[in-house]
Predict the structure.
Amino acid sequence: MYKVLLLLFLGVVITSCNSDVDTGEFVVGSDYLSVSNKVVLIDTLTVDVSTINLDSLITSSQNRILVGNYDDPYFGKVKSDSYFQLSSSGYTLNTDYSDTDAPNFVFDSIRMILRPDKYYYGDTTKVQTINIHRLLQKVKPNEDDTYFYNSSTLNYDSESLGSISFKPKPISKDTIVVSIKDVFGEALFQKIKKREITNFAEFTEYFKGLVVKSTSNGSSSVVGFNTASVLRLYYSKYLGDSEESLFKDFTILDASKQFNNISLDRSGTLIKDLPDFRSSLSSAKTDNKAFIQSGTGIACRVDFPNIKQLKYISDKGAIVDAELIIKPVNNTYSNAYPLVDSLRVFVADKLNRITGTLNNSGSATYAVLNGETDEFNEYIGYKVSVGAFLQNEMIKKSDSKLSLIFTIPNISKSVNRLLLGDQKNSSNKIQLKIYYISY
């Protein structure tokens, strides 16, 4: 009777097996082998799932110009604009010539050359339109800060310096070349030619930087460009009947002075009421789904509210292994919105403050995708070992509980997203398997 009451109290189903039997992927160690020892599988412990909005993500020094927008049926309207400061290795025209040659230099044109870095997300078959604007303030973080964030913006001139519409081909090496207005290029050229700009300080005082903005209403993708992209000033040297074509590049030499502003309009979605980063939105209020999106800071939180009750199973016992399997919701991913290969796993307190990463054997542990396909996609899911974490949670004396936070890798330089099912999801339930030994 006592055992029956105990099982009801725990709210778990326990399956017993002999200690010398392989229980799933876990084999009991020889130190625990005894006729009296038993390993039980607990697979119905409550797992709470929710969605959180992490505090601002650092998007400077990520070495990616991220530009585009798309309307996501689950997350809302996603948009990324990129800000950056440019500079040059020198502020003279062709150094092979002396200042006496300057009158022979003539401005030709100026172009922004954007080089794809092979990252993309969404439907790249639709036309993307980008506009380039001149910044009105220096690329400098707020006072008492050294970073830019996904929410950071800078003032810019509303008049576009250049625009282009194109169908992204991010896998190819084809560059996107945007013609910049001659009036801007001529003015910059004359400043350098007349030696009114001779160093970086004078250059940034006159030309503070650029922002690349996506403005197409019909766009359905966000693409990445390499920070080796350049603003190229073309000019010529005339001497008698001869002409020599020359150019000067302005590049992103300081990665900390380039950042992406990544925004999300959640209006009309299940996560429209997502609270600030100190709180969470239960999956019970979001159709038994949890949401993850890189770039915007949306993450999945997993709690184990009854973990401490396991210590009442026996006087002496321990969690020797545990596997958490979280499954993407069917029909929410596709070729345009592919599943990532793995998820990062952090440990956080009740206010969603990250206290560390989930570690096994001294290294960060990832939830790894099992991409095995079947007719109903039952086997597709992310698996991660959480035994050590749950053992520590079970035996610690304080009442405080830690949670696991799941995010997409490269969270600050992409806009990938994922929907996961909770324990009450109709077809993609989260699963927790705990192997507990009594000795």
Helices lie at 2-10, 182-193, 200-206, 387-395. The radius of gyration is 28 Å.
